[in-house]
Structures are given as C-alpha cells and as structure tokens.
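Supplementary Methods S3. Input chains for the assembly prediction are listed below.
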Amino acid sequence: MVCSAADVLGALGDRWGTLLMRDLLLGLTRYEDLRRSTGATNATLSDRLRELEANGLVERRRYQTRPDRYEYLPTPRGRDLKLLLTAMVQIGDTWNLADREGPPLRFVDTRTGRRVALALVDAETRELVSAGHVAVEAGCGADAVMRWRLERAAALRKAGSDAGPVSADGDATPRAK
Amino acid sequence: MVCSAADVLGALGDRWGTLLMRDLLLGLTRYEDLRRSTGATNATLSDRLRELEANGLVERRRYQTRPDRYEYLPTPRGRDLKLLLTAMVQIGDTWNLADREGPPLRFVDTRTGRRVALALVDAETRELVSAGHVAVEAGCGADAVMRWRLERAAALRKAGSDAGPVSADGDATPRAK
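Predicted structure tokens for the full assembly:
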C-alpha cells in the first residue's frame, strides 16, 4: 500500500510495538523495565523487540558481559517516532477518556517550564498555519489508489452528504453492502 | 494503564482501525469505498467500523432509504486524530522506506499552496520551540507507574548507558532475562 502512514503502522507492528516505542523514547532501555512498564508477557516482549529491531527502529546493545546483558535503544529512525507519541499524548489528553484531573505526561520547554504543543506551520517559513487552511492533495509519490481516494473524497464533498449516492468516476460507485 | 497514548491506541483498536480513520479523515464515507481503499474483508471492515463507532470516533448516518444505506463520518473526537495521521504521514515521508520519488500525500496551506508541517510551539504564546529544548515530565494525572517510568529513565540517563546495571529504586533493578 502506497501510504506513508501505513508504512509507519507496519514498522510499529501493533499496540505492543507502539507501547514499547513509547517506553524506549521516554528513556527505558532494559528488558525487565520494559516488561514491567507494558505488562507484556516474555513471549510478546521478545518478539516485538526483535520485530522493532528488524524494522530498524531499535538497536540492541550489550551493556554487561558474564553474563551478557543487553539494552534496547531507539535508532535515529525510531527517534522520529517522538512526533507520533507527542501527537498521541496530545490527543489523548484532549479526550481525557478516564476523566483524570490532569495529563499523565507534560511536554515542557526546559528554558521556560511552560507546556509545548504540536502546531501546523509553513514548512519553509515556519509561520503558523491554522487547521482551517490546511488541505491534503496528492504528492508525486501517489499511486492510482491514493489518487482515487482523494478524487472520490472530493466528489463526495461536492455532492454533499445528503444528496444521495454519488457517481464519481464510475468505477468507484458504491455497490450495495 | 494511565497513559494518554495508550488511550488513543485503545480507541483505534489496531492497524485496520487506524487505516479506516485515515480514509474517513481524507473524506471517504461509504462502506464500499472503505473496503476498496483498505482491502479489508467484509468481516474485518464491519467489525472495525462498529468498534470505532462504539469508541465514539465514527458516526453512522443513513443517506438513503429503500434500501437503507449508511455512510460513516468522523465525530469531533475522531477528527482530533487528524493530528495523529499528519504525524504518521510526516514520519513515513521522512523514512521513505519504499524509496519513492516523492510523498504520496501533501498537506498544503490553501492560501499559499505551500507545504505545511508539524512543529512544537509554546502552548500559550505559540512561539516555536526547538525539539532540543523539549523535555517530558509527570503531569498531575500521572499514576505510580508513570512516575516510576520517568524516574527510572532519569536514573538510567544519569548512570550513563555504559556504566552497567543501575539500581534506581530497588524494586526496579533489572533481573536476568
């Protein structure tokens, strides 16, 4: 599937892989710590660590000999996932499903102690862009399915959600479920 | 588990749930379109749509009678996930695992046509904060495990990764694997 989001999902594997990356990015490195933090079984933990290593997100490094012991560290590619974790935490804090009195984690500017948040900016000028001005379009790496998704969505928007079935590009006309 | 990131993962369910939210946020609304886009089986698709609905991320709405047909729309809570998808796409574009000539999707400012990206800003002043100045700390919603994670990570950082096993809070001392 030609989709950058799907590539990231594939590299993470599943919920366990994502929780492990959260812990590794927080700074946990040892097997027992990861087990305690996630509550995963040994089988799940070993398997997911191997998978994250195979996918280039985690590096295993020996920190002790006789007996050999290893720690797990995020690679540069793994560290890119900080952005994802920050987004997840920010959304989860907004939802506050567990009705907590405040957020479990705070991202702060070490110079001011104030909270930081994710925002959309112009990629070049770094000026803030409000969400209302952001649209998504096909990039030059889009395949036929990605182009179809965007064209179909545009046709649905144009037809209006109450106007009944849309005939967009023929091929894409919905059939009965 | 007291963790906002885990709450979001729980609401999404799995990879299929996340891919469905991607499509719904791009603007696909019809069952057949979602099936074509994700390649999910009918069983998987119906199940995940029901789950996303139960978790308050998706609303099912009738758009036709005789026969009844439904469309699926992201709720306000579901729309919060745009931030997550934007982060995923941005990371996947950076990785470019498939060695594409360019990104499949582009997020653009509709006023300028230029690319937008996620950045960290001061939550109040909205001034840019560089990643190097961002730290994570326990918020007032942190439970004992979250506090332990952060303390343990700080102890590991302090001890340095080559200094052998760390005895942080006793209880947390790693045991042999």
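Confidence is low (pLDDT under 50) at residues 166-177 of chain A. Chain A touches chain B through 113 residues (CB under 8 Å).
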